[in-house]
Each structure stands twice: as structure tokens, then as C-alpha cells.
Amino acid sequence: MGAAEKLAEMTQEQLVQYLLRLGDNTLVLGHRVSEWCGKSPVLEEDIALANTALDLLGQTQLWLGRAADVQGEGKSADDLAFLRDVWDFRNVLLVELPNGDFGQTLMRQLLFDAYHAVLLAELVNSTDATISAIAEKASKEVAYHLERSRDTVIGLGDGTEESHNRMQAALDLLWPYVGEMFHSDAVDAAAVAAGIGPDPASLRPGFDAIVTAALAEATLVKPDSDFAHKGGRTGAMHTEHLGHMLCQMQWLQRAYPGNKW
Amino acid sequence: MTLPSTDQVWDWLHQVPDPEIPVISLTDLGIIRDVAFEGETCVVTVTPTYSGCPATSIINLDIETALRDHGLRDIELRRQLSPAWTTDWMTQEGRDKLAAYGIAPPQPAGGPDKCPHCGSHHVERLSQFGSTPCKAQWRCTDCLEPFDYFKCI
């Protein structure tokens, strides 16, 4: 696009939705991963998961903080995290699914990290300076997440018969939740037109390159079906699991409104 | 009151230790990006190490406390995300202090140069994640001691 061409602008509501999608993905996955704290198989993995959760929650502060600023209703990132109900969340369904076993958690992490890394690399070029800055910061952290989830999926996939079977079962279970990450709608189209962010569909080849290579090395078979559960990022429908997760994540602010450390 | 020079403020900030790794200072860490006076207000621009690092709010508090102790009244802290913090901004003095403390300093190669305990180059990685967001866990295969490595970012 030539510099002289004027970019379309996203409406305020579209930009808020776009930022909620980014922040809710990191918030919900960050919370899910934090559920492992203190109960991972070994200490090193416990620490790694807690660090990953911490990075994701830090990124959430930035994304939801920006969403609250654009919204302009005087809310904070915490207000958005703790005082919205299920139908206002805009995360993809993949991240709200229960952790399952350790292997399933790491398989989900690989699928999300691969998408996240490819997405952030594009968002660095956003015309919105704040989005670009957050993406630049987050992509450095996500490089470490992806390195670890990839190595762990390979280790467990190409491991014992038991670990291999569990990883294949995790992949079969989670694969139908991959498609939603690359599904485009009107909000995405507006983001593309405004130079705010990429078309999700355009991220698929980069994701496939990472995941296909990792799964091959892990001796795992990628399912054939392209069927995709969706509805999370548009807010049309979440799984039953998100409400249960929010009960735990939000209870303190719901029971003691405005309580602070 | 007479305002101190920005060099003086930098010098004060050089005395403020990192709350998690107190052997190095905030300026050693490279997270203080700018010091300037806007009118009477001392504006300190700080960049976070990792976006979720719990030390960030303590660091801001420590900066404010230190500058107040030196008599500054109007202080403003600004968060700057871009350019994102990199371990390349850590000073040589900071790297030397880390090594002396038993934490292997960041290396361009992506892993520690040598064991901070016995100096052996035979080291192996246990995990890319460690006791704080900025560290990884490594082990020396000669002296068998585990150690922290300040990872590159």
C-alpha cells in the first residue's frame, strides 16, 4: 500500500473487540496454565508453566489495559478481567478447554504458541503504535514459550508407548479447535483495512509450517478433518468450561467487590 | 529548590538495587531508558524486563523512594514498551557482578559461557525457565552444581 493512500479506520467498538480477542486469549490461557502451579510432574516443569502463565498474564495487562483505554469508560484491565461474564469473553475456544493431563496441556500450548508467534510477528507492523509495541515485547517472550512447548511435545510424542499414545489422543482432541484461530470475520476485515492487524487466514501457512514439522518429529499424525468448533472469538458461543473457570478466577472480586492487595 | 543534574539522578539510580537480584542495580540491568527534567518534574522512563515480571511495580516504588530520599519532590515514571528491553543493554559491570554472585551472565550464543562455580565449560541446560522470568536453569556436568543463567531476550 502506498504511503499516500489513506487507511480506513476501525470503529471504536471494532478496535475494542479486536483488543479483547488478544487480551482474552492470553488471560484465559494464562489462568489455565496457572492451574498447574504446584502440581506439575516435576519441579522444572512446574516452574516453566508458572513462568509461561506469568508472561501471558503480563501481556493480558497490556492488551486489556489498551482495550479499556480505547473503550474510554474509565475501566481498568482488572475490571475487564474480573467483572465480565462468559458471553463478553472473546477468546478462542482452544484456550478455555480444561488442562487434561500434562501432555494435553503442552499440546494445547504448542498449537497456541505457534499461532501466537506468527500473529505477533505480524502485529509488530500494526499502524497502532501501542499494539505494535505490545507485540514487539510479547513476541520475545513467546519465542521461549514456543521453543519449550515444541521440545516437550516432541519429547513426549517420540517417547514411550504410553506418552506417545497420550499425545496422539491430545492432538486428536484439540485439533478441531485449531481452525477457529484462522477464521476471519468483519472485525478482522476492518483491522486489515486499517492496517491494525493481519487477516487471520493469512497466518495459517506460517502456523502449519511450525506445527507440521514439530508433529512429524514427534511421530504424531495430524488429523485429516478440517472441522472447526468456533464461536469463542466472536462471542457467539463458548464451551461450558469457561463459566466454571471464571467462577474460580473471578470469585474474589465478585464476593468482595473492589478488594485490593 | 535547585534541581540536580540528570547525571546526578543517573548516579542515584545506579545505587538502586534490582529487587530480585540485589547485586546488580537498575542501571546495570539497562531498564532505565531516560532521565529528563520537564519543568520541575523529574521524568524517569523505565522499560519492563518481562511483561509479567512481578518486580516491575517494586522497581517503580524503589525508584520513587530513592529519588525522594535525595530530595526530589516532583517525580514521574513513564513506562516505555518499545524498543523492547534486551539483555544487550546490560552493562559490563552488571555482567561481572552477576557472575561473581553465581548467576551466569547472558551470552550472544544463547547459553552460558561457563559454570559460575568452577569455571568449567561443560554445562547443560535443564530448562529455559527459572526462578524468575529472566533466568534459565543450567547444570555443570563437571562439578554437578546447578546454576541460574540470565537468559538472552
UniProtKB/TrEMBL annotation, chain A:
Record GO terms (molecular function): monooxygenase activity
**Pfam families noted in UniProt:** PaaA_PaaC (PF05138)
Q: Keyword Oxidoreductase: yes or no?
A: yes
Query: What biological processes does GO assign it?
Result: phenylacetate catabolic process
- Keyword field contains tRNA processing: no
Q: Name one GO cellular component term.
A: cytosol
- The domain of life is Bacteria
Listed A to Z, the keywords are: Monooxygenase, Oxidoreductase
Instruction: Please identify the protein, giving its name as recorded.
Output: 1,2-phenylacetyl-CoA monooxygenase, subunit C
Biological source species: Thalassovita autumnalis
Q: What gene name does this entry carry?
A: paaC
UniProtKB/TrEMBL annotation, chain B:
List the PANTHER family. 1,2-PHENYLACETYL-COA EPOXIDASE, SUBUNIT D-RELATED, FE-S PROTEIN MATURATION AUXILIARY FACTOR YITW
Q: Which InterPro entries match?
A: Fe-S_Maturation_MIP18 (IPR052339), FSCA_dom_sf (IPR034904), MIP18-like (IPR002744), PaaD-like (IPR011883), Zn_ribbon_PaaD (IPR056572)
| Pfam families xrefs | FeS_assembly_P, Zn_ribbon_PaaD
**Residue span, PaaD zinc beta ribbon domain:** 114-151
Q: Does the keyword Metal-binding apply?
A: no
Coiled-coil positions: none
Residues of the MIP18 family-like domain: 7-69
Query: Which molecular function GO terms apply here?
Result: monooxygenase activity
Q: What is this protein called?
A: 1,2-phenylacetyl-CoA monooxygenase, subunit D
Q: Where is the signal peptide?
A: none
Q: Which domain of life is it from?
A: Bacteria
